[in-house]
Amino acid sequence: MDYVNSERTGQATLPTAIKILIAGGFGVGKTTLVGSVSETKPLRTEEVLSEQGVGVDDISGVEAKSTTTVAMDFGRITISEELVLYLFGTPGQDRFWFVWDELTIGALGAVVLADTRRLADCFPSVDYFERARLPFIVAVNCFENARQYSLEEVRLALDLDPDVPVMMCDARQRQSSKEVLVALIEHVKKQGLSRRPEPVGH
Amino acid sequence: MTMPDEEPVWLDDAAGPVVRPYAVTGGRAKPANSFNVVALILSTRSAPPTEVGIAPEQARIIHLCQRPLALAEVAAHLSLPLGTVRVLLDGLIAQGFVQVNDPRQAATLPDDSVFEALINGLRQL
Known about the structure:
The complex is a heterodimer. Helix content of chain A is 30%, strand content 27%. Chain A is of the alpha/beta class. Chain A is globular and about 45 Å long. Chain B is mostly helical. Chain B has a single domain, classed as Arc Repressor Mutant, subunit A (Orthogonal Bundle). Chain B has a 3-stranded antiparallel sheet. Chains A and B meet through helix 1, strand 1, helix 2, strand 2 and strand 3 of A and helix 2, helix 3, strand 3 and helix 4 of B.
């Protein structure tokens, strides 16, 4: 069967979709941030992966085809009739890096959410986006009872490039989450045209 | 569909079968397309055709996409995995029932007007 989708894309009637990734460790507030700025509650979508993508090498003795389901929470912000912004929470386990590769394709940039009580949890995200050359900012989600670190301490701990913005936020607050997204978009704009995100290819 | 307000729950084989993709795709498991999760889908007709047999899920896609929806939104609304929806879209595209704007094929970075629109749009939320 022939597929003619390439001829159909690019028609003027469809808006442009912009994708931003929200990354960070487990429980850091990714879905909270998505929910606080999105026009609806976060939706959940799933990718079912066959064993060849899951990184399980030894399936000897397993007769049935093994599959794994990876869930992603996401939200939508309709900017205008021509422009829709989607926020995707990234799945947070190492074995799902290839899902990150897919999510990174076509993404504008990423927000790495950090919790100063478990700062190491966001190392993999920072490392991933640096290698993928996807522009990102770090937003420190201010949890109650967490010791306040200075942004400079966080920057040092994460060994960030000097041009990577670091900011405080409260992912529960719509206004704060909006500011995070605006900061990311301004950062991406400043980064300019000289980059093309590539899958890291784990 | 429940709307969890915490982190995603990771389901694997231990959770049992979530869905059998081939049950809604006529046995086809592999999509011909690799649409981005934010590829926008718009129906080209106001209602599913009555004269040709299409799967109920494909009819639902035509109903859902009367306004542009991302692949991920369609999948979420139908409670189907992304890959299954991609397979369903193959058929719909072949028959000309939907059009898809896949950003995978778009230019690398939006121009300045898009950045401005995004920033202004967010500030006005």
